[in-house]
Each structure stands twice: as structure tokens, then as C-alpha cells.
UniProtKB/TrEMBL annotation, chains A, B:
One Pfam family per UniProt: PfkB
Annotated CDD domains: ribokinase_group_B (cd01945)
Domain Carbohydrate kinase PfkB: 17-239, 298-332
Record's protein name: Carbohydrate kinase PfkB domain-containing protein
Single GO term (MF): kinase activity
Similarity section: Belongs to the carbohydrate kinase PfkB family.
UniProt feature coiled coil, ranges: none
Record organism: Aegilops tauschii subsp. strangulata
Top-level taxon of the source organism: Eukaryota
Keyword Kinase: yes
Keywords carried by this UniProt record: Kinase, Transferase
Cross-referenced InterPro entries: Carboh/pur_kinase_PfkB_CS, Ketohexokinase-related, PfkB_dom, Ribo/fructo_kinase, Ribokinase-like
Length: 339, 339
């Protein structure tokens, strides 16, 4: 699903967050305590949100750097090698001597379609002072965009502060409430969030209302995208110019009008946008200037669906790519492929 | 618990069987399907019966070689490195390019004291032709003893046939009935077996009767040891000279007389032997010449017991050491430490 990379100069992006190794063990049936069973198959894959998203970005044609931590154990070596093979620059990673790399064992039961995850965090955990000023400056040099998955949040905050001073745009993946998220959101130019996040974070009565709330609460934010699984995604984007003098449109009515424009009977993914620079209001929240864009998801037959692991991260990679290439409004269309 | 190695020439032993990496993940409670949990601790350890036993033998002062198979993945590299660091010669290992190394994920629930094992066999499996004649000959050169854990049984049988022609004694670890076990037992000079094995293999009415049965059925066998957990172990040893003209003693009576000689109130491990060269009989089975030796296990307080994983393999390592050093009748005493 990844387009081939353009061969000219590749835009640099920097990500800070989680890397991991995933061991996916397929079993005939989920074990009971004290059982001794054999797996039917094993798949070893690099993982971690930042690792996945930057791998996706690299495959699309960006030149990503990663700030994260692993150990010099066997798992850590395979994490670094896999990232490097995919074109992710790992020279700003902290590699601990001893301890263990982050690692997730996933028991895949294909009969009951369950995936049980046992995550072992990296040890010792990353301390922000492990990222030296020199390395931070070098990692940010020439970078067009910075991305956080809200892991290693103390280190992430140092990176965000420096990036913000340098006016480098920041993308935050707001999957769920985590320690340090609010601090990072204050720096965010772009937010991509999970279906439940906007309401969870704002307490709003619906997702569209919550999106307006987020843009009002986070003044640096240029857009927020919420992914909605099989329903596709929504993007609320702030105008550069103020539309305060035009008539107000209620955000829920606006979404309804977009939904009516889309041919939902088609299995192909569609993308529809409202007019630009509308005054969009939400009951009891306020109003802002911008436009709403809706993408539907392609209806993929279940027998063609192999594995949705990392689909959200791949989406982030595509958003990084689109923004870095200056076509941020194309982002929404990548949803079609990735959700 | 391992004695330090003598500094003179180290006796060479060759083992053929299983190597593995064990990932022991301690969890707060055993997961339900589709849960996403974090482990509290992770321990990564080399494993596999042959890997463990030969590591024990090396620590006691032998110079072990191993025939087994791993992949050149991260796990395989750590398997090889750990064995090499312990002084096990891995130059006769087959290392596959691609595939995966044998690997066991163990979910340790300390509250309910359960250990749930998911074993992923190595892939692709070892083919006997992967051990070349040249390597087999080189691996056997100068070796004083060969050991099998009854894994990779087709390869093991090739090694056993060649070792037998060269009159190199063979030790078989008979943990349970497995494919190829009977073929290997026919070559065995020494057998160490688990508590339930003698009766399971012979169908005899008691363990002592089953031991007599094993020595009658396997004419090359010099002794059989059965480990009995907290009850210690039993060894039935064949005499070099025939005692057919002396009176017959029933093996169950003989064991009872040994049990009476031992001070069971002591928490220290004890070892008692019958007279040598008795004529020992078992009802409905027959009789043989030899002696019976009983070892009790040290009574270790549960708070001092850290982990019994690999205890049986360490016992094998000690038996290899004792026989190779020409003091095979001391073997029984190692039980005191290892069971």
C-alpha cells in the first residue's frame, strides 16, 4: 500500500517514542495455567508506535530519525537492525548496556480470533538526561517535522520544547490519555487521535463537538484527525484567515451534510470536504474558522484482511509524509488505505 | 552448587539434543484472552535439555561439545553466545540461515505458582544429513562419553551408531517416551530417567521391579538411575562379574532394607548402598547381578528454593562429570544437591 519513494532529497522527520519487538505466537487454543503447549507458528516483527510510524514514513520516501531506547541484548540488536534496514536513522537511540529491550509477546488464537498481549517494558527506563543537548540539537538539525507517540514523555517534552523554539511543526498521536500527553498537546500543530479520544479528553457530547473543542483549547493546533475504524476518519482543520463574519454552521449539521454527499453503497473509499473557511460552531463550546473533511474507509472483504496490527501507525506515517511534502490536505485520503 | 573445575586436561563429552531460549515473564495474574497486560519482570535464559546439561558439565570441569540446530536470528545468536561463554564448544552446531530458533515463553504467575509454557520449535527442523560424516567424526574425536536427551532423534541415532562402533559409552536421558527413544536405549550404557518412566516403559508393578526389568531388557546397560524428586533417587547397577550362584534377594525387600538404614529424620542428604554383586530378583521379571543404591534428597526449606528449572538437566551434567572422571559410583551422591 506504500507508494514508491521519490528519488530527490528526502524530507527529514524526527520521531520520539516507543520501539519494541513483537513475537506473534499462533496457538491451537489459548492455554490454561500450567499448560505446556507448542505454538503452531511464530512471527517476529519490529513494533512500538514510533518504530512502526517511522518505518511507514521511510517506506513512503521520508528520511526519519528516531529517539528511543533499547538494550544491547539480542532483541535490541534486532530492533536497531530492522529500523536501519528500513531506512530509519537510529544514531540518536540510547542503547543500554544490560537490562532488556521493550518486548511484546502476543498469543494469537485464530479460532476465537483473540490476541492476548504481554508487554515487557524496556529496562532500565529512559531518563531524559540520557538525551544530551548535543544529540538533541543534531537530531533536530534540518528536520521538517517532529512526531510523538507520547511514550518516554519526559524526553519527548525536552524535544518538543526545543522543536517549538525552532518553529518545527509537531504531530502528536493521541491514542489515549497518558502521562505527559497534555504537555505535548500544548505544543502540537497536528493531532491524530483514536475514535474515543476526542470525547474522552474533552468530555464533549459527540466526536464532532469534541473536535471543535480541541481546536479551541489548543491554539497552536492546525488540524485534528480522528480515525474511526470502518467508518473512516474525520479531519477538522483551522483556517489561516478568520471567518468570523460569515454565518455559523453547526458542526454536527455539517457532518450530516457531508455524510449525505458520500455514496455509502460504494465499497471504494471516498473523501468529501466542506467549503473552506466556514464559521463552525459547537453547542456550548464555541466556534472556530475552518473546514471539516470526511473520509470513508474502503470496504475490504474479511478474507483479504491479513493483519491490522500497526494500521494506525502506518496512517501516522502517511500523515507525516503528506505534511512534509506540503500536501497536508491529502492526508485524509490515506485513511482510505490504512483504516 | 557446582564444584570448581580441575585445571588439568578436561575430559571431552559430546551431547546431541535440544537447545532453546527461555523467556520467563512474571505477571501479576494469568491473562484472559484478548487482555493487554504488562509483565512485572523478564528473565532471559538459555535452555533446552542438552544445552542445560552440557552447561552444567562445563561448569563442573568437563569440555563439552554440542550437536544441535539453531537459526541465525537474534535468539540463535544468544543461544550460541551463552553456550560458548560457559565453555561449550558450538562448532558442530547447524546454524540455519532464516527460520527461527527454538524458543519457550513461560508465563510465571507467582500468586498461583503456575508456570505456563508456550514452546516454539526451531524451524526448519534438523535433518540428519545436515550433520556431515566429517563433522560427526570430528565431533566424536577424543570424546569419552556421548549423551542424548532424545531430541533430534534421527541425527542422534547416527551419532549413537558411530559412538557405539568406537566403543564410546552412551548416556541417555529418558524423561518420557519419545520418538526414537527405544533405538537410542539399545545403545545406552547409562540411563537417567524420570520418576514415572521405568514403570511407563516396562509396565512393571513398581519402580524397583521396573529397574530390574530395564537392565534385563537392555543388555548394554551398566546402570539406570531414576530421580524421584523430594524422595531422592535410586540407582540399579549391573555387576561386571556374575553372581548367579549366590542366593537371590528380592529387589523390593532390598530397597526396604536400604530405607531402614537411612536416618530419614535428618534434613541432610544421605546415600546408602546394598552389598556389591548380589543376585537381585524381581517377581515375574527375572534376576540380575548387581547392587542397589539409594540417595535421599536434602530437605531444602521452600524459602531457599529459588527455581527448580533445569534441576534435572544439572543432575545429568553431574552424572556426565562423575562417569567421565572415572568415579561413576559417586554419581548418586550428586542427587543430594540437584533434586
Amino acid at each position: 500500500a506504500f507508494a514508491s519513494a521519490p528519488q530527490q532529497s528526502k524530507p527529514l522527520v524526527l520521531g520520539c517514542g516507543a520501539v519494541s519487538v513483537d513475537y506473534l505466537a499462533t496457538v491451537a487454543s489459548f492455554p490454561n495455567p500450567d499448560d505446556k503447549i507448542r505454538s503452531l507458528a511464530l512471527k517476529v516483527e519490529g513494533g512500538g508506535n514510533a518504530g512502526n510510524a517511522l518505518t511507514g514514513a521511510a517506506r513512503l520516501g521520508l528520511s526519519p530519525r528516531i529517539i528511543s531506547k533499547a538494550s544491547n541484548d539480542a532483541l535490541g540488536k534486532s530492533i536497531l537492525k530492522e529500523l536501519q534496514d528500513d531506512g530509519v536513522d537510529t544514531s540518536y537511540m540510547t542503547v543500554a548496556d544490560g537490562g532488556n529491550s521493550p518486548f511484546t509477546y502476543i498469543i494469537v488464537d485464530n479460532q476465537t480470533k483473540t490476541r492476548t498481549c504481554i508487554h515487557t517494558p524496556g529496562y532500565p527506563p529512559m531518563k531524559p538526561e540520557e538525551l544530551t543537548k548535543e544529540n538533541l540539537f543534531a537530531a533536530l538539525h534540518g528536520v521538517e517535522m517532529v512526531y510523538f507517540d507520547v511514550r518516554l514523555h519526559e524526553t519527548a517534552l525536552l524535544v518538543a520544547e526545543e522543536a517549538s523554539q525552532r518553529k518545527i511543526p509537531i504531530l502528536v498521536d493521541a491514542e489515549k490519555k497518558r502521562e505527559g500527553l497534555d504537555d505535548l498537546l500544548n505544543f502540537a500543530s497536528y493531532v491524530v487521535c483514536s475514535a474515543k479520544f476526542p470525547q474522552a479528553w474533552t468530555g464533549a457530547s459527540s466526536t464532532p463537538v469534541a473536535l471543535v473543542h480541541m481546536l479551541l483549547r489548543l491554539p497552536n493546533l492546525k488540524f485534528v484527525i480522528v480515525t474511526r475504524g470502518e467508518k473512516g476518519c474525520l479531519m477538522l482543520e483551522r483556517s489561516m484567515t478568520d471567518a468570523s463574519e460569515t454565518e455559523e454552521t453547526d458542526v454536527e449539521d455539517l457532518l450530516e451534510s457531508l455524510e449525505q454527499k458520500v455514496d455509502l453503497s460504494s465499497s471504494m473509499a471516498k473523501c468529501v470536504a466542506s467549503k473552506s473557511n466556514l464559521r463552525i460552531s459547537a453547542d456550548g463550546v464555541g466556534s472556530m474558522s475552518g473546514r471539516l473533511i470526511m473520509g470513508t474507509a474502503e470496504d475490504i472483504p474479511s478474507e483479504e484482511l491479513i493483519d491490522t496490527t500497526g494500521a494506525g501507525d502506518a496512517f501516522i506515517g502517511a500523515v507525516l509524509y503528506d505534511i512534509s511534502c506540503g500536501k497536508q490536505y491529502a492526508s485524509i485520503c490515506h485513511v482510505l488505505v490504512f483504516t
